[in-house]
User: Fold this.
Amino acid sequence: MDRHMTLITTNPPIAVAWDEDGETLGLREKPVLTNTELAFGDRFVCAQCGADVTRASQRIAVAGSHRHRVPGPHGLEQEIGMFSLAPGCVPVGHFALDFSGGSDGEWRMGVCAHCGNHLGWQHQTADGIGFYGLILDHLSLAEETEADRD
Assistant:
């Protein structure tokens, strides 16, 4: 009889499965989530507090793509989208993280300017050019207002 244990309660759960002999059958990881609602609309907000973060017009391609997978907590991948500007995302801390292993520049964490929720990272090159890699599951599509319709 196979057995399993849920390690992290997510949807779907992350679990380790093993057989009666005690041998590990494998780790079932949570798949990269794709926030498909962000493909539509113009304004993107913090999924936690609803504060404005960036706009669709700020989407850019880096290394040939807008969307990228990066390592996340507990070995899970996260999907990030690249944006030239994200006025609602404040870079914090020292430049330290390097996802790509030898790229021109460094990354630092970015948080929501309103609530402090982790939104992603800012990349900065030696010549001062920068962009944002925002975790797509940490953004939501802003509700349309009267001003947006005009």
